[in-house]
Amino acid sequence: MILDQVRFTKGGNEEFYKVLRKRVNGYFKENNISKYANFAMVLKTIAMLAMYLVPFVLILTVLDSTLLIVLSWVLMAFGMAGTGLSVMHDANHHAYSKKKWVNVLVGKVILIVGGSDVNWRIQHNVLHHTYTNVVGMDEDIDIGNLMRFSPVQKKLKAHRFQHIYAWFLYGMMTMMWATSKDFTQFKRYREKGLLKTQNVSAGGFLLTLILSKVGYMGLCLGLPIFLGAMSWWGTVLCFLLMHFIAGLILAMVFQPAHVVPSSEYSEVTKNGDIELDWASNQLMNTANFANKSRLFSWYVGGLNFQIEHHLFPNICHIHYKKIADIVRDTAFEYNLPYYSYDTFLKALSGHANMLYNLGKYDDAPGIH
Description:
Elements: E1 7-8, H1 14-30, H2 39-61, H3 66-92, H4 100-107, H5 117-129, H6 162-171, H7 173-191, H8 202-227, H9 232-254, E2 273-274, H10 278-284, E3 287-289, H11 294-299, H12 306-311, H13 320-333, E4 339-341, H14 344-360
Parallel strand pairs: 1-2, 3-4
């Protein structure tokens, strides 16, 4: 489906988002607060990068204990996931700073964890955020035949076990980004004309991809093999362990926000219409979780306030908790849903149950 041919229709709730934006903007104006990163966000950026880079430097220089080296790789995994969730995510949404060059620079942090800022913005900003859970548009719910994330997708026999094998596939996510996925996305996005949304040329972007992957593997894997105290095969295993943990963390944060029993899964008609307005679609396909947990919220970059993030992706996540009450009250005022799980475990359980239902039934409770 071509983006220019797909459009949200007026579902009767257009006034909701106008009022909500006015109220949220009023909060920042009345309190004389910037919508972008503050000093606490800068400190978090330093902490997340340190969690990733400091153990790496220690592996290359002073550590000779196998246990400490393995633990350092594990800490790097948490730093890698935290950097993605809390730092580069805001920057690539242009929410880190009002200065474009700062967002571009901080957004490039994704390169040191094996990803591509260009592909990420296309998949996440252009496709996922615009067309959240819209079948055929949102790539986050369409990963081919391996998993069934929506009731519209054809159910295969193997899907009966997806609630079991999903966690292994989730753990492979960042490893795929670091190796093959960015190249397959490059091919697909070039064919669909999506590279133009990022103002990049196909040839230049491909060269950047190749150089960034070679540089990442050479630095993050090559240097520890040659300079670290662990055997080469032990280093490779630790590298894979780091990616597995990071991938699992990222999936466990993102999936319970959209692939849950409350999700509606909008469809595009033959005429290219989505029978909802944009804001209503966000609320009907997004869920919050663990909003009272400050430490959890700090680590996951406020993405447990996923509703606020989807409605206001250009606001730094450091402010989501403060505007959550405004969003919830306004949604209820306009008879729109505001889905939220009390705890992270409840949200994760909801996602696991959804995987089970989607794998076993064509239609079942929790599948719309």
